[in-house]
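Narrative of activities, Objective 1.

The group set out to show that a structural description can be obtained from nothing but a protein's sequence at a throughput compatible with the screening campaign. Below is one input-output pair from the validation batch, recorded exactly as produced.
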Amino acid sequence: MFEEGKRVSATTVMTLEELYEEFDFLGDWDARGDFLIDLGFELPKLPDEAKTDENKIKRCQNNVWMTLALNTSASAPSIEISAQSDSYFVNGLIVVLLAMFQGKTPEEILNVDVKQVLSKLGLDRQVLASRKNGLFEMVTRIREFAAHAQTALDAAES
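Output recorded for this entry:
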């Protein structure tokens, strides 16, 4: 699962601050849900060869695949995330995760207060429990990868 130096192409569609502003502007959940679906259409596609059992997120209501890599070519090593679902709504949730984690250092990822972000966006109250399970499974995979990456980086510094 841990691949140092491998570059994965993924694009953050929006920053977390832009998401906060847009969700505040939209106001009600129906508009926010439609917006998440729209974001799902913009999520870059994952190559078919990445849609493997190893990359599949378990406990998701829909099919979701995720790849993670540590980019060591930058001045500060960062985590690169690519993911895709067969649901545009879930792809919108992936965009939220990308806004939280994409391009961040392992330490920054481990310090993100996910519950606070989801609460501020209202997703803690509006996303169905079955989708939350998958969402938190994605968060867990990202954080585990970040923890392994941080351990490897710490060991390399010693």
